Amino acid sequence: MAYVLGHHQYGKAEVRVVRVYRDTDPHELVDYNVSVALQGDFADAHIEGDQAKILTTDACKNTVNAFAKEHGDAARQPETFALVLARHFVRDVPQVSQARVQIEAYPWDRAHGTPHGFVRRGDHVRTTTVTVRGDDETVVSGLRGLTVLKTTDSEFHGFYEDRYTTLKPTNDRIMATEIQAQWLHSVTETGWEASFSAVKTAITHSFANAYSYALQHTLWEMGQAVLDAAPTVSEIRFSCPNKHHFVVDLSPFGLENPNEVFHADDRPYGLIEASVLRAEGPGRSDAFDPGQAW
Amino acid sequence: MAYVLGHHQYGKAEVRVVRVYRDTDPHELVDYNVSVALQGDFADAHIEGDQAKILTTDACKNTVNAFAKEHGDAARQPETFALVLARHFVRDVPQVSQARVQIEAYPWDRAHGTPHGFVRRGDHVRTTTVTVRGDDETVVSGLRGLTVLKTTDSEFHGFYEDRYTTLKPTNDRIMATEIQAQWLHSVTETGWEASFSAVKTAITHSFANAYSYALQHTLWEMGQAVLDAAPTVSEIRFSCPNKHHFVVDLSPFGLENPNEVFHADDRPYGLIEASVLRAEGPGRSDAFDPGQAW
Amino acid sequence: MAYVLGHHQYGKAEVRVVRVYRDTDPHELVDYNVSVALQGDFADAHIEGDQAKILTTDACKNTVNAFAKEHGDAARQPETFALVLARHFVRDVPQVSQARVQIEAYPWDRAHGTPHGFVRRGDHVRTTTVTVRGDDETVVSGLRGLTVLKTTDSEFHGFYEDRYTTLKPTNDRIMATEIQAQWLHSVTETGWEASFSAVKTAITHSFANAYSYALQHTLWEMGQAVLDAAPTVSEIRFSCPNKHHFVVDLSPFGLENPNEVFHADDRPYGLIEASVLRAEGPGRSDAFDPGQAW
Amino acid sequence: MAYVLGHHQYGKAEVRVVRVYRDTDPHELVDYNVSVALQGDFADAHIEGDQAKILTTDACKNTVNAFAKEHGDAARQPETFALVLARHFVRDVPQVSQARVQIEAYPWDRAHGTPHGFVRRGDHVRTTTVTVRGDDETVVSGLRGLTVLKTTDSEFHGFYEDRYTTLKPTNDRIMATEIQAQWLHSVTETGWEASFSAVKTAITHSFANAYSYALQHTLWEMGQAVLDAAPTVSEIRFSCPNKHHFVVDLSPFGLENPNEVFHADDRPYGLIEASVLRAEGPGRSDAFDPGQAW
């Protein structure tokens, strides 16, 4: 045949499952968006239209819901829930060679100390991507939507200038970004909630406190702070839009504007991406294939 | 002429202005999205193509930015900022008979006690709509995006049944909604931040604590709590989607599901709207035209 | 009691129903998003928590789905489908005094002349809002998302200048907008598809051909064209963002830019709203309450 | 040092440039969203906070705008515009080793044969990703947002069943998806518009005409059709959500529903991904690194 089937995978995306723990007092809950992607012996579904080896995406959804009950303890943390799901697909469905389970977890706060009332936080979404392939298991944790801003202690100057460079250097500017980060663990068991909390605190603390000479510089600072704070993390990758705040020219109105009034622009934005890794040691995962897990 | 020009207004929408107060230690900031809509003697712009009376929308934008500097104190609260802007357009631009200024305010928390670092909260957006027409001034405050959920203390039964009714009554369900509310003040001066905080607390506290026989019932409870808590509020209007959480049927897998595993559905959703007003007294604004300000 | 219940209504929003006509050859389909809002004797649901008169929003959804089968011919057009639904709720459910049914219709094109294959158009969404209250019935049709642009034949100058005006007048600019329009019919029966098509054509034809001295001017031109083209339309209301395209200053790079390279800005945008009505005659609906139907 | 900087790149994202060709009669226009990502000798910007080698993202934006004038002919097609931009960054900025330029192109139709009026199509977005690294140049074209549906000629049965499988097999269902596809060219020069048109037609024609035993099956059919139709394409990758349309159970209302009334569900959805490649020959690009260009 002149054509061949290349890389292929499939699954159910965005299963919105909420698990309430009513046997505790007060109640607890987790709020997840779960996506499953399977690889394996599925070429016939494409080429022959033969579904004999296809686990339906509907069954993937059912599995997520059933496991929220059967594996209620695992479901308390996105990492452990993703692990039991991914292991199940690889171990119990013969034709599956690899399962990737991604979870977005939406955090809720208890409302006013009431046992059963909750308010959804909107300051970040917690994420995880677990990939199981045979005995290889990688756990990546992450967050997105964490928007931070500093009103000073940020400079940007001394940059390369070409024919198309018109930007003026500055010794004091607003720096703001919406942090998206993913970090690879060197283990598959740890205290996931404490680890997440340590990483998130390291990121916001470092962003707020470290003097910045560029958003690139700040990513490096934040990455180091994360690796200092979270011993099971071997690598962290950031993707951060530079959310530009432009000083508005008020001189036509006879007004000074000493960095007080800014236009928060939508587009375009700088997009800065970087990863920070441990140089060596047990936290360094050389086997990690970022193409699958990131 | 066979045709006439009906209702018309115009202005600049979504001016994204960030005001930093650098003369304070620590810095403070407000983050606004300002929209201006003007009514007045503007028919010629439509019918004759004659712009002689049109204040450009670009000038509206400039005014927002300039006022963030010139009226820096007013800009600290969305209600006072909207008032100075709306009064300016009506008083200083002769052909403007009415100005409506709407502001969305995005709240930020200080990061880890640092003086200049901030993390954007995402749990709600604070809103205001100020309308000035001659000497009439109405101030409406509001919020949107406040998502709340209770895991119990919510029933729904005893409802009307017609040919198309298949819903089963329930004595225990998840109730969740994303609250959008707007409330009319009987005054144009008060402590706006304290007032907003009192209203928001009344809403979440009432939602979490009041036993519910329907989302309609809860809106009434929340409305009363707001009027109890905020003496300058004469009316509050809610628009609340009933974000359905369906109990997943796990019986095909031999599993019980005693209200533990839910599917959080996107669409359709119930949409419940109601206003609660003071029956009489100084807080009752009969002059209020909801068509303009809501 | 110190507080009273004000305006209230409820219903099911965003029922996503697709109706396929398989008894025709080739197949036909409509793709709707239906929202129902009911008013009536519903105060007890709020105040007493008594649901005895509440038609559940779930039943509203069921009714939409069942009517797509039972009233299959009516479902071919959003206006007729909304009418049968709204009439049903008012006539068959005693406690309902008013029903408002809103439909968004997503248009599809047949693919390559195949009988059963379709490609979704994305150039506009067709809308309708039908309100039935006793014997009063109003039908409003509309569209949104229709984005149009003209590269010339648009001026903007001679405008009012105040202290905050810095805009330069122009005799040649790009004008672009995303048209949202709603029009009120003086009848409740007509050829809805032909009428919609005539209005949409009048809008785009007028936008493209009429010389413009402001977006306000263009709304007036488009409104007249619609009333000329659609005899059952008594009023049309536009809400149109002025999607600014700014000429990029290329002089720092030694380049001319004679209106060739533009930055398409997101925010802020001008927002121009206007309605055009028949001055008199059978097409003029004085009974129309825009607060409900618009 | 204990930590090292891993993969990093940066640039300006989402430069919204509109280029009008006014020297032609009638006018022509292209409407682009351009994103630039640069790799190279940029570690010092992170680690030392030294920006001496950083071409500012502002200059990236300026370059896009200036090139829209300087390379007006290249700007007529997204592929050629991305190529001149990416080549410039690699060849003219010494510290840049690799440039990736991504463009989203929004198509417009001429309105009613007018020379200067346009209506934006919304049925798809055309995309391209060009990567230049030294002498290696890869051109990937694509589209997204192309939503297609067939009302019959789609089956799904004979699938694998495990403990969590409850789906019923079907011999006739609606199949719908929103196609996102990217295809790699074996050349860097061709008639890009004709090539895009041939691929898009092959996709929709194949979707509409090929009998389907699964969405997987249809991806394979569409992939082959594309390779048949576009000789310069060596590989095409699809990512297609299975937009489920569920037959509504109308039996509680005493109604049959022979595949006529469907609920169009939002989430979850199946997500099917596959690539189809030439087995051998000049169209086969073995050097292609999908990690960069896809």
From TrEMBL, chains A, B, C, D:
Q: Which reaction does it catalyse?
A: urate + O2 + H2O = 5-hydroxyisourate + H2O2
Record carries keyword Oxidoreductase: yes
What keywords are annotated for this sequence in UniProt?
Oxidoreductase, Purine metabolism
Gene3D superfamilies under this entry?
Urate Oxidase
Q: Which SUPFAM superfamilies does the entry link to? A: Tetrahydrobiopterin biosynthesis enzymes-like
Protein family (similarity comment): Belongs to the uricase family.
Name listed for the protein in its UniProt record: Uricase
